[in-house]
Each structure stands twice: as structure tokens, then as C-alpha cells.
Amino acid sequence: MPLEIKRSTETISARSNPLVVRIGKLEEKKHRDAESLFRFDGIKLLCEALKFGAEIEYILVREDKYSHIMAAIDDFLGEKTVVCKGTLVVLGSSAFEKLSKEKSPEGVITVAKYIDNFHKKGKIEKDSVLLCCSKALMLESIRDPGNLGTILRSAAAFGVEYVIMSDDCADIYNPKTVRAAMGAIFKVKTLSADSFVCTIGEVRACGRRVFATALDKDALRLGDFEISADDVFLIGNEGHGLSKEAITACDRSVYIPMREGTESLNAAIAASLCMWELYQK
Q1: Which fold has domain 3-113?
Q2: Considering the entire predicted model, what is its pTM?
Q3: pLDDT digits (tens, 9 = 90+) for 191-213
Q4: Spatial separation of the C-alpha atoms in residues 273 and 99, rounded to whole Å
Q5: Nearby residues of 177 by Cβ (< 8 Å), 6 or more positions away
Q6: CATH number 3.40.1280.10 is the correct assignment for the domain at 119-279
Q7: Closest by alpha carbon to 99, among 155, 163, 22, 189?
């Protein structure tokens, strides 16, 4: 079998089992942070994690889906052997259903360690490639984990390597973020920045232009001016947009042309359109 992993000798049936209770608590950020662990459902995300080399603690497989799950992993890995230091645990249907949040669960839940060298917090490092050469996007106060995950998914599709977020954005390890990202959490680096307005200044100090997506009297129409691969777009909160401080810290504002009389775009869609513009450069 291509996947080498230690299997627990016990099949867990009780919903009150300590491991089941412990993993259930990972739904809450305080417990994720306390253990530096996050969980996600499904075969595709498990395979993406294995491909990325994530440190997996547990692979939890529903008993009646075991053969199907292992065959799917074998098909994904092919001839390649992957050694996983985690533990494979088989759960009875009742215990599994307590943990699964999917409407149509595939029968596997993975628990992995935080990817601290990929998703960082604090300040931009002075010699960071983020400042100098990689395509980047900035987010202020994106609170919906589904939106954040969708933005990461689009970033992976359009070649954006870094997403810089204000520290009040949704949690990167929220199960809804991970689900919506569809594996992009293993492909796109993120930074949750302390002083966000200062961080905008740091990006600009490296010679990169930062454009606020905001409609004001001096805003440029997206598509009507020349952008470069080094340019960075800043997307704001779903309901309130960008703060005045963030807009002021940017080089210019841009707006996305739309049919008159329509509502503003969803933050994830707006981000995707901006990243598509960058992708062409």
C-alpha cells in the first residue's frame, strides 16, 4: 500500500470516547490554537495534505467506508510511497457522525498540525520574497470563513502566492475556510499582519503599488489603466468595505465597472476579478 501509516488496533464506537471528544473541540478556534491542530473532511483534502507533506496527526475513517477510502488514497498516490507519522483510526458510524459536518460525508476526517512556516502571524520579514517578487493580495476584515476560503482558492488558480490579511480576518484554519479553499491552504501562503496600515506602507516601500478597491471620486476604472505583476490589490470587509485609514495608505483606489443600479460584488468575487487581471501579467 503506497500510504505507510500506523493503524490503531481499536475501532472506536462510542461518541463519548476521549479522542472523539477532543477532535470535536477543534471546531472552536481556542481549542485549535491550544493544540495547534485543525481538522478537515473529505478524500480530496486528505490527498492534497499528503501531497503537500502536511504533518498529519490522525486520519479518521468510517468503518463501512474503509476499503473505499484506502483504495482512493492508493489511486491518488499511484506508485509513490508516502510515510505518514500520524495514526489511522477506524470509527463506528455513530462516532463518525458526531464529528462530520458534511451533508454527504465521504467517510474520512483528517487532523493535521498548523502549518506555521506557511501561514504566519506578525510582521513581514525584511528579506521576505513577498515584498520583492511574488504576486500578492491584501485583505482587510474579511470575516466570513467561506469568503476567505474562496479567495484562497482563486489565489491558487490565478498564481497569487501570498495573501496578507489584517488580524481580524476569519481564521485560516476554520473548517469552513479550509473546505471552501479546496486545497489552496496547502498552496497559498498567508500572513496575518499585526499593524495592517503599517504593513501596507511596508509593501509600498518595496516599490510595489497597492490599490484599494473602493469607489471614490479619484478611483481608477479596472481595465482602463496599465497594471504590473508587482501591483497589489486590497479587498475590504463584506459589508463595510475598506477603512478610511487603509484607503489613505494605498497608492490609489480602483473600482470594478458594473451595470448601473446593481449591488456591490461579493468580496470573494471582487478579489477574483482583481487577481485575474494580475494573472495576465
Answers
A1: 60s Ribosomal Protein L30; Chain: A; (3.30.1330)
A2: 0.94
A3: 999 899 999 999 998 889 999 99
A4: 36
A5: 145, 146, 148, 149, 152, 170, 171, 185
A6: yes
A7: 22
